[in-house]
Design brief:
Chain lengths: 271, 289
């Protein structure tokens, strides 16, 4: 979908390594089962604050399932069983007292866009309202900012009252992104966010993501290897539920891999 | 290249034949409805007048109007709704939005199915035992309405559950992912998009309630009571029982009178159904996803 032009990782893409900050997300020995079927087996890695962390891997490797576990969606996914620990900001999310507060800090965008059957405005204002913001002027600002960041504002600013669920597929996906941003999250989970979005708009959103990472941490699951290359500071390669390796994106794409399977996948030889 | 083969022809003939057969069967459904309405209007129509609707029965129910029965039915239906709608909607919300698939949920669902299958005369006897005697409501509107409410609860619950389930799961997931609680999700997304469906169910319940005879016969409806009820602890006449009584229990009733009563009763029910169809059309007219 997106033009796969090779992009050399720019210097700004590489994470600046200064003092060793504790990781923002610590994944330790994480396994995920669906009704006895193991689909993620004991992976461990860290995600640092203010980085874009890419996750790549062929279908069925457990990428989406990992994101679901991060947001404690296993609580309402029948049969989903998560073992091991995920710590966010030092706290084990399994022991988080108020799971709603946890989810409020995490914005998620899944591949199938969901425009809620509310107006475009209310779609984006929902999360702030749930967080207790009532003043219209305040909401107006949030709605405009989030829609602009999701590259949707220009298209919908004259029809904020029309139903979000009746927008086009690509617009709904951007609405979903705007909604995730409206939570003012500390952690943003993007799962193939550009699957229904045209290449030009995708680039605009990618630019916004590069800006956003100065404020928040982003986990980017994508099937577009070049998107990882353009955006992520570090990349994890998952294969059939196993973590093959995690490395600096720039180094991986230079061929400095520890496992030849990573290279094979990056060069499109399998997957 | 595109010339039809013999098999294509045969399939087409079969398709027409099957279609005709089904059409014919579906059309037959109209016959009883038309016959019932036709006879009622033809024979009962001349009975209907403002006086008929607004006066009491006289001469041992062989003449006069139906006012106490009409008012009584409204009382019974309204009180029954007041009891069954909140309980039914709450139960449906629990089953659809909160319950996980465990033994308790399965028992509740089983109870609802069985409740729907209990014959109305058994409900009547339950009503006598529970509301008239045990709770000491006596034979009263309250006892009769509660009996009706228990009987029609499955209608409300099933209709509400269906309306709730017609809201895609993805909407709930999207809300939960934003940190919305179940209740916030229900209030802001699920209920607003299922309220028309729920209302349709409630209206269907009304028409069912208005027509029932057995459950109210021993619990609160009187054969003949020429005054209007003052409170829920009074007995009352009711359209359905009145029709039964003047058709079978009272000598010397003019032949046309039951037709008139039946016509009024069925008009009430049909008006309710029409309202429910209108709601559904309205619902379909503004599809939200
Ligand atoms: N709710 C579920 N119940 C049962 N099995 C599931 C469920 N969700 C996912 N799975 C299974 O888990 C496995 C991994 O799925 P997952 O969505 O995590 O893969 P993925 O890496 O995101 O793949 P893709 O790149 O195609 O999105 C698949 O075999 C899938 O069938
Ligand atoms: Mg996936």
């Amino acid at each position: 979908m997106v033009a796969e032009t090779p992009v050399t990782a720019s210097a700004s893409n590489a994470r600046v390594q200064t003092e060793p900050t504790p990781p923002f997300v610590e994944v330790q020995d994480l396994s995920i089962h669906y009704g006895g079927k193991k689909i993620l087996s004991g992976v461990s890695f860290d995600i640092y604050e203010n980085e874009i962390f890419g996750i790549i891997g062929p279908a069925n490797s457990g990428k989406t399932s990992f994101l679901r576990a991060l947001n404690r969606m296993d609580m309402f996914t029948p049969g989903m069983n998560v073992t091991g620990t995920i710590k966010i900001d030092g706290h084990d999310i399994q022991r988080w007292k108020n799971v709603y507060a946890l989810r409020r800090r995490i914005g998620v965008v899944f591949p199938l866009p969901v425009g809620l059957p509310l107006s475009v405005y209310d779609n984006v204002a929902l999360a702030p309202r749930l967080a207790g913001i009532k003043r219209r002027s305040e909401l107006d600002i949030i709605v405009e900012r989030c829609l602009t960041r999701a590259a949707l504002w220009e298209e919908v600013k004259d029809r904020l009252d029309s139903l979000g669920s009746l927008l086009s597929g690509g617009q709904q996906q951007r609405l979903t992104i705007a909604r995730a941003l409206s939570q003012d999250p500390d952690l943003l989970l993007l799962d193939e966010f550009s699957i229904a979005v045209d290449p030009v708009t995708t680039m605009r959103i990618e630019d916004v993501l590069k800006e956003l990472k100065h404020e928040i941490t982003i986990v980017l699951v994508t099937n577009l290897v070049q998107q990882t290359r353009r955006l992520s500071d570090r990349t994890a390669f998952l294969l059939s539920g196993e973590l093959v390796e995690v490395g600096e994106t720039a180094e991986l794409f230079e061929g400095k891999v520890r496992d030849q399977r990573t290279l094979g996948y990056l060069e499109g030889r399998f997957g | 290249m595109f010339a039809p083969t013999e098999l294509n022809h045969k399939n087409r003939r079969n398709q027409r034949l099957v279609r005709m057969l089904f059409l014919w069967m579906a059309t037959m459904l109209i016959i009883p409805v038309v016959l019932i309405l036709g006879i009622l209007v033809y024979r009962g129509g001349p009975m209907i007048s403002v006086d008929f609707l607004l006066t009491e029965p006289t001469n041992g129910m062989t003449a006069g109007g139906i006012l106490p029965a009409l008012v009584g039915t409204v009382w019974l239906v309204v009180v029954a709704l007041l009891a069954s709608v909140p309980i039914g909607i709450a139960a449906a919300l629990y089953l659809s939005e909160y319950a996980s698939d465990n033994w308790l949920t399965r028992i509740i669902n089983l109870a609802i199915i069985n409740l729907a299958g209990v014959p109305s005369i058994v409900h009547a006897l339950f009503g006598v035992g529970a509301f008239v005697l045990f709770f000491r409501f006596g034979t009263s509107i309250l006892a009769a309405s509660l009996t009706l409410a228990v009987m029609t609860l499955p209608v409300v619950i099933v209709a509400t559950k269906e309306a709730l389930q017609s809201v895609p799961f993805a909407f709930r997931e999207a809300c939960w992912n934003m940190g919305a609680t179940r209740w916030q999700t229900i209030r802001r997304v699920v209920l607003p998009n299922s309220v028309s469906g729920i209302l349709t169910g409630v209206i269907l319940e009304v028409s069912r309630t208005a027509g029932e005879t057995a459950p109210i016969m021993f619990t609160g409806a009187a054969f003949f009571l020429p005054f209007l009820p003052q409170s829920v602890f009074d007995q009352t006449m009711a359209m359905s029982l009145h029709l039964f009584v003047i058709s079978t229990q009272v000598p010397g009733v003019p032949e046309e009178l039951p037709f008139g009563v039946a016509l009024v009763l069925i008009s009430m029910v049909l008006a309710m159904n029409a309202l429910s169809i209108a709601f559904r059309t309205y619902l379909r007219g503004r599809k939200k996803w």
